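Homework-ish question, so no full write-ups if that breaks the rules, but can someone show me the predicted structure for this set?
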Amino acid sequence: MAWNHRSAIVAMAIAIQAVPNVFTAPAAPADLIAVSVPANDFTAITADDPTATGTIWRNRRIYLGKNGTAGATIPLRGPGGVAPPAANAWVPGRVFQAAGHAEIRNAAPIAGVFQAGSTVNSVILAAAASAVDDLYLGAPLQTANVGAGFRQTTLISDYDGATKTATIPETIVAPAAGDAYTIPAYLSYVLGTLTTPPPLLSISIWRDKKRYDYRDWRPTAFSVDVPVANDQNTVFPSADFSGRGVPVAVVDDVAPALPDAMMAISPAPARGGKFVFDRIKLGHQDIRFALAIDVAAASNQNQDAGQDQFDITGGTRTISLDLNQMNVTDLNLATRIDNQTIMPILSTWGLGSGNNFGLVLPGNVIDPLNPGDRNGFVNLTGNAYPAGIDKSAAFTIWW
Amino acid sequence: MNKHAPLELPSGSFELSDLEKIGEQAANAGSESERTRVIRDGLAAANQRVDQVGVSGILPDHVTMPVNRVIQEGTERQLPDGGTETVGRIVVQEEAQVYDPEAAAAAQPGREEGAVAAAEGATDTGSAGAGV
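A: Not a homework solution, just the prediction itself:
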């Protein structure tokens, strides 16, 4: 007999499901994902039996099957290496895709020189740059006009293909015509409208010597949390996800160990980068971009389960902020709140090639922020919301 | 019409260079309907999404599909008057079932290929094929 299964021995693997209703078995090590202890449980589907039993006791409920939930926290570590991985290969990216993001890969750096007309908030890319609007939204842009070292990278928050104008969510030194720039190799996840349903996921969770399999998994919650790391807050950026799936099987299977190459990449702390709010660099503690997603299955008697697979039927996008209180002369929040000014937000952090991150929220409006205390300093907490519908967030890794 | 209007991207995986080509082809389209078609077909072709069924709406020729099947399971017991009765319970079992499009078409003529009818006439995944 083999019991006394240990709770610390856990692993998770995720595969993009090829066909609805059919489990695509994730394989170790290619589909393993580095996560915290995952959460998975089952919910019974039962029907009340109204039959009178001739006693005070109601008859037992009729068991119709079960649903499952599965989720975890992903400490954000990039794929590393010298270039972006193959399409769909970065396993956390599969969760981004399931939550409505398009994965965009740029395998080779794009070098160019600015044309005349750049300002402190927008740059005119080379004449050879794309004519397609928004194509570079979320793309990293590196130039000495932005900063030095790691901070020379910013993310493009808007792009006009006719004029080659890339909008920058921070204030930079206006480039002169002929100044050089690079769009490095990158992997970006751009949030779309979900007009086309995102892919379903198949998920395996090992708990020591048993494996729980789920198919047709859809996210109900997804967030990217970027807390600043320092001596008071020893935390790392992470992505949290939870969702509903159909339990497939519970089998005996020993948990696989994560590959050394994956564990050799450290999650990058959010420090030494930048946090820019309406193009002003601010001190802050945390920004979290969260999706709350409604998931439901349409009724269908022709299905043995009485329903089709889970679909995403609605959702909300919320940005939670924890800012350091600032002078009105530095940033007049009240005016921006009252006018519902649409403002960009940018956060970048990283530890090196393939482990550099950026989160850009191109246009947002903000609720009133409430003052409080954080480690003896006045902070401001509250929510902001994307003002646009399509491409309202981009999460980018660059090399 | 903004000839280079932004592409609305579905979930999936795309090469930046492919998106640029699609945008350029769309800009050169002669009409709005042609532009819509170029974008739709271009994105479907460029998308390296694994579950291509989600893009094309067409299932592979033969796929194995687990089916949740509700069955009655009963045990017989003796009654005091000498008769018997069956005490039943409902259980849900998963079975593997092979999707055969030809058999499905024969079973329900007139259905589109993307909509799945089970070979044994027991299952219809409805929007599973066409709606994803």
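Now go work out the reasoning yourself. Hint: The first strand of chain A starts at residue 10 and ends at 16.
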